[in-house]
Write a structure and sequence with these properties.
The complex is a heterodimer of chains A (114) and B (157).
Chain A (H helix, E strand, L loop, with lengths): L5 E7 L3 E10 L1 H18 L3 E12 L2 H15 L3 E5 L3 H9 L7 E3 L8
Parallel strand pairs in A: 2-3, 3-4, 4-5
Antiparallel strand pairs in A: 1-2
Chain B lengths: L3 H8 L4 E10 L4 H13 L6 H22 L6 E9 L3 E8 L7 H4 L16 H8 L2 E7 L3 E9 L5
Antiparallel strand pairs in B: 1-2, 2-3, 3-5, 4-5
Helix pairs in contact in B: 2-3, 3-5
The structure holds adenosine-5'-diphosphate and magnesium ion.
Chain lengths: 114, 157
């Protein structure tokens, strides 16, 4: 197994699934986290899934596909999806695709440089 | 009289100061290898953190396209050339000998993808364009594609 520069932490219940991603999201890591997250969503069927992205230090357009795909999955089971604390850079990439118009962006107190 | 196109070309045509060539097989794990190596080579021009992040992201997009589109059902070679030029310009050429792009103008449109089933967003070229100063795409069906990214670095105090 090759080393992945991305880690995934899943924590949830029927109400809310929290997905904490750290490190780098590209096509390689997205393909892996996608299947893990989807298994959790299918099992828990939460009302809401929250992606915590404050510790992402690299993301390309694969991140858009990852969020859009999970958004569609949550819609299918009648739930919602939110993205919490993206860096300005990550937010800029989401906005290129107009994601902020369909997905809830939660911004905490945390400062986001870069 | 000079046309706008010529003027634009001249902005990016400074003499080459240093050059690196790398060859990688089109394995997904090499996406991060490629962007990290290119960023490390560009460090000698002392780019800002933001400029480095721009270059990494654009390179990641172009290299991913070679892996998921050009060599969709096979493993091929990705050729990357990085040129650091006079006038603080970085030129990164990412070339494949894959299946090529039928209609480049269409492919460059935001949200256009031929691979939606694998959750490609169709935003790769849009990301490259928004993080670079110029993006050139040359492609020939069944022969391959060359994407050239141009980044002008700001002067540092
Ligand atoms: N190197 C390449 N070889 C063949 N086709 C490509 C290449 N790069 C891009 N394409 C085509 O252009 C389309 C748009 O690319 P892009 O904007 O990166 O979006 P995405 O990769 O998400 O599909 C791709 O879906 C593909 O059809
Ligand atoms: Mg792409």
């Amino acid at each position: 197994m090759l080393k992945k520069n991305c880690t995934l932490e899943l924590d949830g219940n029927r109400e809310e699934l929290t997905v904490i991603l750290r490190g780098e999201i590209d096509h390689y890591t997205a393909a892996w986290v996608r299947s893990e997250i989807d298994a959790s969503i299918s099992e828990l069927r939460p009302k809401r899934t929250v992606f915590v992205l404050s510790e992402i230090d690299f993301m390309d357009s694969s991140g858009i596909g990852l969020i859009m795909g999970r958004y569609a999955k949550m819609q299918n089971i009648g739930g919602t999806l939110a993205v919490r604390d993206p860096s300005d850079r990550v937010e800029r990439i989401f906005k290129l695709a107009g994601l902020e118009r369909i997905i809830e962006l939660e911004k905490g107190e945390k400062n986001n440089e870069n | 009289m000079r046309t706008n196109l010529e003027k634009e070309k001249n902005r990016f045509s400074g003499a080459v100061i240093n050059e690196m060539r790398i060859k990688l097989p089109s394995l997904s794990v090499n996406e991060s290898v490629a962007r990290s190596v290119v960023a490390a080579f560009c460090a000698q021009l002392d780019p800002s953190a933001c400029e480095v992040a721009d270059i990494k992201c654009a390179v990641s997009e172009a290299v991913t396209n070679c892996i998921v589109h050009a060599y969709k059902d096979s493993v091929g070679i990705i050729y990357i050339t990085v040129k650091l030029c006079e006038g603080r310009t970085v030129r990164v050429e990412i070339r494949d000998r894959g299946r090529g792009i039928e209609n480049v103008r269409l492919a460059r449109q935001p949200l256009y993808t031929t691979d939606a089933e694998n959750e490609r967003s169709g935003m790769g070229f849009t990301v490259m364009e928004s993080f670079c100063d110029r993006v050139r795409v040359n492609s020939q069906c069944k022969k391959g594609t060359t994407v050239t990214l141009y980044k002008l670095l700001k002067n540092r105090e």
